[in-house]
Design brief:
Chain lengths: ~210, ~210
């Protein structure tokens, strides 16, 4: 089946969700035209952007049939269909399901926790968010336990969801590296997690 | 490809995420053995449950090869593969992507907002959650705008993501009906949303 082709990616390289797509594209060896959206200036909340994209979010991907895709995982799934190798979302049904399970588990339990900590405790975000400092601190208090879940999953495993790097590893890498922004160190006892992080950081895509 | 078969679904019919799976199964006409997990008694946080399922969540689905699936959407994707008709997650790549886009958009923007309002403002939940009343009220304050996005999407459309009922409609139905629990009425001006809700409620699956 012939797919519509990518036109441009609405991007913001410093933000975690666009970074997930950028790492995914680097691992695929794919290039796409990018437009940087100035989140701190609220460019994603301007009427023109909302008419085109539908929601105040980056990343978004415009295709040459007029479709605009939102949602990080959806954009990755499109690129996986456009260029299946290297496969990062599963070769058969059960592998797809297993990878999606881990991707979502990391997204909801770890990535969302780091993001909430950042959004609700960082003074620079006060212009963009209805901040609740208490909620930010609740999330900060959960970080070590959530990192521990990832450490436990990585015991005796090289990658999170399959015998190779998948989208689950990318979601986890971006979440873990965002800990720096909320000034939360990884506990030194999480040796499985730290060894995996070293493997991830050795890849050229991690420099993005 | 032959898939492992379902053994039992860890369920809690009154909770929103298990309800999504139950409606999905009813629309497929599938039956599965169920075990009710008593969330208010913390049964999902007991060591036996955590060893089996990995995370303190329902729904979870045990398969006859020992796999335990978590994540509502992942469980639905398994059942979609097990019995493809009626199709609710897409017949080809672009339809799958479009349905996933709407499913996630509703999940993150509407469903999560209703859930946060419930978790952080309902006194009965204080035993299970680190409640932040301010955060609950921020989410309550967003509900009408998020319902408005859904109303706008449904202008001139019978269903949210395709020419038939999909998983996106199920996620939206469960979110919208959970408004009753947080005592938030749907604004009467949202005529597209109210007409869609009537269509959804006319289906036998909505009685679950």
């Amino acid at each position: 089946m012939s797919l519509p082709q990518p036109v441009r990616l609405y991007d913001q390289p410093r933000a975690p969700n666009p970074r997930r797509v950028n790492i995914f594209l680097a691992e695929k060896g794919l290039e796409v035209e990018r437009v940087n959206v100035d989140l701190m200036a609220g460019a994603h909340k301007q009427p023109d952007y909302l008419v085109k994209v539908g929601v105040p979010q980056v990343p978004a991907l415009e295709l040459n049939d007029g479709t605009v895709l939102t949602e990080t995982v959806v954009i990755c799934r499109y690129f996986e269909a456009l260029q299946p190798e290297p496969n990062m979302m599963g070769r058969d049904v059960m592998e797809q399901i297993t990878i999606e399970k881990w991707q979502r588990q990391i997204e909801f339990r770890l990535f969302a926790t780091v993001a909430a900590c950042f959004r609700h405790t960082n003074p620079h975000l006060a212009v963009l968010e209805d901040q609740c400092a208490d909620w930010g601190e609740v999330n900060r208090g959960r970080l070590d336990a959530r990192l521990g879940e990832l450490d436990q999953r990585l015991a005796g495993r090289e990658w999170i969801a399959a015998d190779r790097l998948t989208i689950a590893d990318i979601t986890a890498l971006v979440a873990v590296e965002f800990l720096r922004v909320v000034k939360h160190p990884i506990p030194e006892s999480y040796a499985n997690l730290l060894a995996w992080l070293e493997r991830m950081r050795a890849r050229p895509s991690a420099a993005l």
